Amino acid sequence: MANNLNSLSDNELILGYRNGDCACFDALLARHQAKVYGYIFSVVKEKEASDDIFQDTFFKVITTINAGIYKDENKFIHWVMRIAHNLIVDYFRRNNKMPIVANHADNNTNVVDTLKVQGDNIESEIIRRENGKIIRKLIHMLPPEQRRVVILRHYGRCDFKDIAARTGVSINTALGRMRYAILNLRRLAQENDIYIEL
């Protein structure tokens, strides 16, 4: 079965995953994880942060595919690398770090974008703290299973494999709960006239 999946194109695997075959996503992940993780680690140079960015990259991939808004243009890996790149930039921005980027053969990566990282000022730090308080209040309004996933992921710094083990569900279910938690947080914020970036 695995050999049959390996013969499929990225778009065929995505279609299979959309139709409920989780093995198709596993094959897609196995096909591209070395390239994606290698790029992330080559820029970030820290294993824990690289692991988190890698997990977040594929969380965004799964969320987009499940939402039905991914467009099949035979550019799956380019799209995934762009997501990873944007998350790396966010990581450096949050941590007020300037990356040292080695020469990279991948022409799809714009190193100039990576270097456009600016330190946060006092005002943005205050806003971030206030947003943190608001988000914590909203999290407590989530259904218990969604709240637990959010707390484990963002406060416990657990990856989705750990979350799945701790909550006794599959990784796919843990990712799904996270997706619904984000959708609910956005809805709760809108209902309460609160602006947050999620």
Distance between the termini: 38 Å
Structural class: mainly alpha
Helix content: over 70%
List the total number of helices. Answer: 10
Rounded mean pLDDT is 79
Rough shape?
A: globular
Strand content bin: under 5%
Instruction: Supply the CATH architecture of the largest domain.
Output: Orthogonal Bundle
Point out poorly predicted stretches.
98-121
Radius of gyration: 18 Å
Structure explained in plain terms:
The protein is built from ten helices and no strands. The chain folds into two domains: 2-115, Rna Polymerase Sigma Factor, Chain: A (Orthogonal Bundle); 122-191, Arc Repressor Mutant, subunit A (Orthogonal Bundle). The N and C termini lie far apart (38 Å). Helix 2 packs across helix 3 (22-44) and helix 3 runs antiparallel to helix 4 (47-66). Mean pLDDT is 79; it is low at 98-121. It is globular. The protein has helices spanning 2-6, 10-18, 22-44, 47-66, 76-94, 111-115, 122-139, 144-155, 160-167, 171-191. With 198 residues, the chain is mainly alpha-helical.
